[in-house]
Specification:
The protein has 306 residues and is mainly α. The protein has one domain (4-305). It is 76% helix and 4% strand. The protein has helices spanning 4-26, 34-59, 61-91, 96-127, 130-149, 161-169, 193-217, 223-235, 237-247, 254-270, 279-305, and strands at 172-173, 182-185, 188-192. A hairpin with a 2-residue loop joins strand 2 and strand 3 (188-192). Helix 3 packs antiparallel against helix 7 (193-217), helix 3 (61-91) packs across helix 9 and helix 5 packs across helix 7 (193-217). It is globular and about 65 Å long. The chain starts with a helix and ends with a helix. 34% of the residues are buried.
Amino acid sequence: MGSAYFWIGFHLLIVLLLIVDLGIFSGKTKKLRFKQACLHSAFWILLALLFNFLIYYVSGPESALQFFTGYLIEKSLSVDNLFLFLFLFMHFHVSEPHQHKVLYWGIIGALIFRVSLILTGVALIDRFHWLYYLLGAFLIFTAIHFVLQGQRRKKDFSKSLSFRFFKKILPVDESDGTGEFFVKKRGRWKVTTLFIVLLLIETTDIIFALDSIPAIFAITMDPFIVYTSNVFAILGLRSHYFVLAGSLSKLYYYKFGLAAILVFVGAKMILANYIPISVFLSLIVIIVILGLTVGCSLMRTLVKKR
């Protein structure tokens, strides 16, 4: 299914969906309410499932199962991005209408970056197979660091290396509140704080992509499956963000579930030659972890209400 026709057709579909998302679903500054965000999220998930059915019809059940498992992994790992986006917007006091604009362009940037990263990653792993085990160990390390980091104080992004770097090399206007990325003052163009937030989101997405893309390599090395499952997981991020913002207090244990998925996938990569785990079993394990995580979080919320 990875022929040139499928690559071209897939990207035409993505361009059409991005146009629809910008022009019909949200617009540049329209406020997206919780109910609307849930409906939009359901649409993107349904679209991914329809594409999964197309893969099943064209390439068979094995490729379809690989896509679905990869999509589930990427979707669950993308929630970590959402928590960070939420903190960035709160820290820099980005209003909700302007959050739409940042997330939209952030998603486009992520799509452009990930195709090059995926194709490069597949080529490297195919040539240097030991990288496969290194990536597995990296995922386990990431999981441990992720859980331990939750016990520390939240990071001040205005003091982060990336923020200071962008502020040093770019002329920044910190007083702008119009929601524009660029402003012209006294005949000189400057970037706004909103643009710096966009650059920080792109930077963090690159960092998280280094975690999530190796995770799907444990499921399949087919670049088309890896890329399309990544894209469909990213496409709904904007709607998912506003769902998360409206239900953040209910997902108390999600950090631990996410870490468990990373440890499982990393171990699967390291032990692939000794204890092979099928795609179907991987899918079952991931669904169980997600179910337990969401279930325990909801139970904790109910107990607190009593």
